[in-house]
Design goal:
By secondary structure, this protein is α+β, with helices and mostly antiparallel strands. The protein has two domains: 148 residues, PurM-like, N-terminal domain (60s Ribosomal Protein L30, Chain: A, 2-Layer Sandwich), CATH 3.30.1330.10; 168 residues, Alpha-Beta Complex (Phosphoribosyl-aminoimidazole Synthetase, Chain A, domain 2), CATH 3.90.650. The chain has a six-stranded mixed β-sheet with strand order 9-11-6-12-10-13. The protein has a five-stranded mixed β-sheet with strand order 1-2-5-3-4, covered by helices on one side. A hairpin with a 4-residue loop joins strand 7 and strand 8. Helix 4 packs parallel to helix 5 and helix 8 crosses helix 12.
């Protein structure tokens, strides 16, 4: 399953996945712990960065939202297992520490932690002279949460007939930026402040829209309902992230016409001449988080989602998989 244009832009998703498989580490990690004698719990951990979205922030000279992305990429991975994030830590490395930029970054991290109902407990900064250009920097985040071991959402409860709900993304989130930047700035020769009428904003404003944090919504859902499977749609898009959680004897059938794909994705596909398969392999295409639920819980869950003022779409269903069929079928 290749993504030729993304690979040509400099990112090889398959090679990254081969590396993860070779070191036999899953992310997030799940570690059984005993909090007290009466409960068996698990520590859920996740770590991530924001990739080359940082370059868009540097081009725009705007660094007060990139920290929200950093938090989102980690806490969304925590909540997909059913664990509310408890703590968040950050790492900032830079050529030379620019206090103004670093303060803006931390402002965003604090905002992200507030949205995720978690706590920024610490972090680390490192000056690395000559490692980055000018005011260049990189970010990493780490989050941890606790889940009831018996209630961890790992996909094992998924069955035929389950419904698939897609929660709308806020835009590109924090994946696919190497390809998006190539299309916008190399192919189309846009400037970061070029105004795009169909977006009613500049391309820079669109690119820096923060990744949506789904923690509050998921917590409300979990108070009332059981979720059989969750997928945070990050690197690898819907295809890779959803396929990972589907049990071997089932398949997920997704109907792309069931949701409204935001203009930015159509814009990139058209101008980059990207095939639909690659779009689903690189970008979230308007779906930032996926829930798989039992049919008898669908109506109640949708009501909870709408009450939380979340945009959601019924995008597919789980069915039995025949021999040689893929875990994910797109129609």
């Amino acid at each position: 399953m290749t993504t030729p244009q993304y690979k040509q832009a400099g990112v090889d998703i398959e090679k990254a996945e081969q590396f993860v498989r070779s070191i036999k580490i899953k992310s997030p990690g799940i570690f059984p712990i005993d909090i007290n004698k009466n409960a068996s719990s698990a520590l859920i951990t996740a770590t991530d960065g924001v990739g080359t979205k940082i370059q868009a922030a540097q081009m725009a000279g705007k660094h007060d939202t990139i920290g929200i992305d950093l938090v989102a990429m980690c806490v969304n991975d925590i909540i997909r297992y059913g664990a509310a994030p408890l703590v968040f830590l950050n790492y900032i490395s830079a050529n030379r520490l620019n206090i103004k930029i670093a303060s803006q970054i931390i402002k965003g991290i604090k905002q992200g932690c507030k949205e995720a109902e978690t706590t920024l407990t610490g972090g680390e900064t490192a000056e690395m002279p000559n490692h980055y250009k000018n005011n260049g920097y990189d970010l990493a985040g780490f989050a941890a949460g606790i889940a009831d071991k018996a209630k961890i959402i790992d996909g094992s409860q998924i069955k035929a007939g389950d419904k698939i709900i897609g929660l709308a993304s806020s835009g590109l989130h924090s994946n696919g930026y190497t390809l998006a930047r190539r299309i916008c700035f190399d192919v189309l020769k846009l400037k970061i402040d070029t105004y795009i009428p169909e977006l009613s904003k500049t391309i820079g404003e669109e690119m820096l829209t923060p990744t949506k944090i789904y923690v509050k919504t998921l917590k409300k859902i979990l108070e009332r309902n059981r979720i059989n499977g969750c997928a945070h749609i990050t690197g690898g898009g819907i295809i890779r992230n959803l396929s990972k959680i589907i049990p071997r004897k089932y398949k997920a059938v997704i109907e792309t016409k069931k949701w409204e794909i935001p203009f930015i994705f159509n814009y990139l596909q058209r101008n980059g001449k990207i095939k639909s398969q690659e779009m689903l392999n690189v970008f979230n295409n308007g779906i930032g988080f996926i829930l798989i639920v039992s049919k008898n819980q669908l109506d109640d869950m949708l009501a909870t989602i709408y009450k939380a003022k979340e945009t959601a779409y019924l995008i597919g269903e789980v069915s039995n998989r025949k021999n040689l069929e893929n875990a994910l079928v797109i129609i």
